[in-house]
């Protein structure tokens, strides 16, 4: 059976964000990364920068010289920021980062960045589960969650719209890669009042 077929049969199930394992099925586990994941994170990060350069402001050259210690810090940033990873067995297949603002005037906001899923696992529900895990944490923190996507990245934009993100602008020429300009859609999801009713 294909990866997609297996996951359609057993879709990811979300539990409370950041409390141990976030998402677990017989196929995948989504959890916060730790320093022990630094090597795997480096590998998938470089893959992402090569595979979809228009989705990231960093280039492979920008990060080629980062040390293992640098990557370990990215895996275990200061709370409440976090990088989550989706695993199939021991293989890291996807990542997403939650970066809160820390300054007094802007700490009502956080940003979701560096969302990436290996091509073989796209359209399986794993990418959606990662984004839902980020949203679940942002909801607990009662923040406005921001993200962006290049205008031509229709799958990402459709997913974000389906999960409640609202466009609030377009950044023209957000990235220029080999002379090609890319505009980005700016999106927000206000979770400050979005709390489930007490049982």
UniProtKB/TrEMBL annotation:
InterPro entries named among the record's database cross-references: Acyl_CoA_acyltransferase (IPR016181), Bact_Acetyltransf (IPR050832), GNAT_dom (IPR000182)
GO-annotated molecular function: acyltransferase activity, transferring groups other than amino-acyl groups
Residue ranges of every copy of the N-acetyltransferase domain listed in the record: 28-193
Pfam families, A to Z: Acetyltransf_1
CDD domains per record: NAT_SF
Source superkingdom: Bacteria
UniProt keyword annotations, A-Z: Acyltransferase, Transferase
Protein name: GNAT family N-acetyltransferase
Source organism (scientific name): Tianweitania sediminis
């Amino acid at each position: 059976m294909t990866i997609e077929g297996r996951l359609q049969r057993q879709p990811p199930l979300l539990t409370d964000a950041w409390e141990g394992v976030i998402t677990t099925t017989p196929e995948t586990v989504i959890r916060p990364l730790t320093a022990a994941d630094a090597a795997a994170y480096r590998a998938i990060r470089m893959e992402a920068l090569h595979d979809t350069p228009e989705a990231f402001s960093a280039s492979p050259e920008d990060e080629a010289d980062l040390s293992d210690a640098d990557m370990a810090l990215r895996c275990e940033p200061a709370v409440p920021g976090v990088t989550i990873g989706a695993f199939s067995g021991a293989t890291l297949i996807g990542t997403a980062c939650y970066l809160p603002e820390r300054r007094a005037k802007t700490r009502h906001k956080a940003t979701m960045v560096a969302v990436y899923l290996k091509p073989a696992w796209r359209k399986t529900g794993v990418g959606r589960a990662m984004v839902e895990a980020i949203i679940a944490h942002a909801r607990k923190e009662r923040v406005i969650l921001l993200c962006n996507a290049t205008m031509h990245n229709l799958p990402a934009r459709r997913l974000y719209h389906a999960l409640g993100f609202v466009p609030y602008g377009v950044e023209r020429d957000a990235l220029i890669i080999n002379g090609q300009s890319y505009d980005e859609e700016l999106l927000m999801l206000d979770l400050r009042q979005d709390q489930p009713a007490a049982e």
